Amino acid sequence: MLGFLQQPVMVTTEVNLNMVALTAVGLLSRLWQLAYPRAVVFDEVYYGQHISFYMKRTFFLDGSGPPFGHMLLALGGYLGGFDGNFLWNRIGAEYSSNVPVWSLRLLPALSGALSVPMAYEIVWELGFSHCAATGAALLLLIENALITQSRLMLLESVLIFFNLLAVLSYLKFCNSQKHRPFSPRWWFWLVLTGVACSCAVGIKYVGVFTYLLVLGVAAVHAWHVIGDQTLSNVGGLGPPSPGWGDVPSILWQVRVLCHLLARAAALVVLPVLVYLLFFYIHLLLLCRSGPHDQIMSSAFQASLEGGLARVTQGQPLEVAFGSQVTLKNVFGQPVPCWLHSHQSTYPMIYENGRGSSHQQQVTCYPFKDVNNWWIVKDPGRHQLVVNNPPRPVRHGDVVQLVHGMTTRLLNTHDVAAPLSPHAQEVSCYIDYNISMPPQNLWRLDIVNRESDTDVWKTILSEVRFVHVNTSAILKLSGVPLPDWGFRQLEVVGEKLFRGYHGSTVWNVEEHRYGRSQEQKERELELHSPTQVDISRFMARFSELQWRMLTVRSDDSEHKYSSTPLDWVMLDTNIAYWLHPRTSAQIHLLGNVVIWASASLATLVYALLFIWYLLRRRRRVCDLPEDRWLRWVLAGALCAGGWAVNYLPFFLMETPLFLSHYLPSLPFQILLLPVVLEHISDHLCRSQLQRSLFTALVVAWFTSACHVSNMLRPLTYGDRSLSPSELKALRWKDSWDILIRKY
Question: Where would I find the MIR domain in this sequence (predicted)?
Answer without folding.
Answer: 316-379, 390-447, 451-511
